[in-house]
């Protein structure tokens, strides 16, 4: 999966869709579900004495959304974009924006068998 914890994404479908970039908190279920900051917030009602809220009340939590509802955010394009993978000259694997061609970060360290000489 091309989306990792800490990435900026744009929600493209659902109630919280819009141009704002949001941070991924956690990747679940092998990359199929994501916890995104401020998206799909719900209230959980807890009793008194609960470890997270000793006084009880309502906890506000983010619930997972499907990874097909988000796109990786490119700072150069200022929007969610399609991405691809490619190898750099030293053999490191990186993500890149298919709109502007800019690198979106290295995914794996360099490997000699993929290095171009």
What does this entry look like structurally?
By secondary structure, this protein is mainly beta. It folds into two domains: 1-81, Roll (SH3 type barrels); 82-117. The protein is 0% helix and 46% strand. It has strands at 8-11, 21-28, 33-36, 41-46, 57-62, 65-66, 70-74, 79-81, 83-87, 93-97, 103-108. The chain has a six-stranded antiparallel β-sheet with strand order 6-3-2-1-7-8, with no helix packed on it. Strand 10 and strand 11 form a beta hairpin. The radius of gyration is 18 Å and the shape is elongated. It starts with 7 loop residues before the first strand and ends in a 9-residue tail after the last strand. 15% of the residues are buried.
Can I get a quick summary?
The protein has strands spanning 8-11, 21-28, 33-36, 41-46, 57-62, 65-66, 70-74, 79-81, 83-87, 93-97, 103-108.
Specify the CATH architecture of the largest domain: Roll
The helix-strand sequence is EEEEEEEEEEE
The domain tally reads 2
CATH topology of the largest domain: SH3 type barrels
Could you estimate the helical fraction of the residues in percent? under 10%
CATH class of the largest domain: Mainly Beta
Main pleated sheet: 6 strands, antiparallel
Count of alpha and pi helical runs: 0
Averaged pLDDT: 91
Bulk shape:
elongated
Q: Strand arrangement, largest sheet?
A: 6-3-2-1-7-8
Q: How many angstroms separate the termini? A: 29 Å
Helix and strand content put the structural class at mainly beta
What is the radius of gyration? 18 Å
Question: Which percent band covers the strand fraction?
Answer: over 45%
Number of strands: 11
Low-confidence stretches: none
């Amino acid at each position: 999966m091309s989306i990792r914890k800490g990435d900026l994404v744009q929600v493209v479908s659902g109630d919280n869709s819009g141009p704002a970039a949001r941070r991924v908190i956690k990747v679940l279920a092998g990359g199929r579900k994501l916890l995104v900051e401020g998206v799909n917030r719900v209230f959980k009602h807890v009793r008194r004495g609960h470890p997270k809220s000793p006084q009880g009340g309502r906890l506000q939590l983010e619930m997972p959304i499907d990874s097909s509802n988000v796109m990786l955010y490119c700072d150069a394009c200022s929007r969610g974009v399609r991405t691809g993978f490619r190898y750099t000259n030293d053999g490191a694997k990186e993500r890149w924006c298919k709109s502007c061609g800019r690198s979106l970060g290295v995914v794996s360290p360099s490997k000699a068998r993929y290095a171009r000489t």
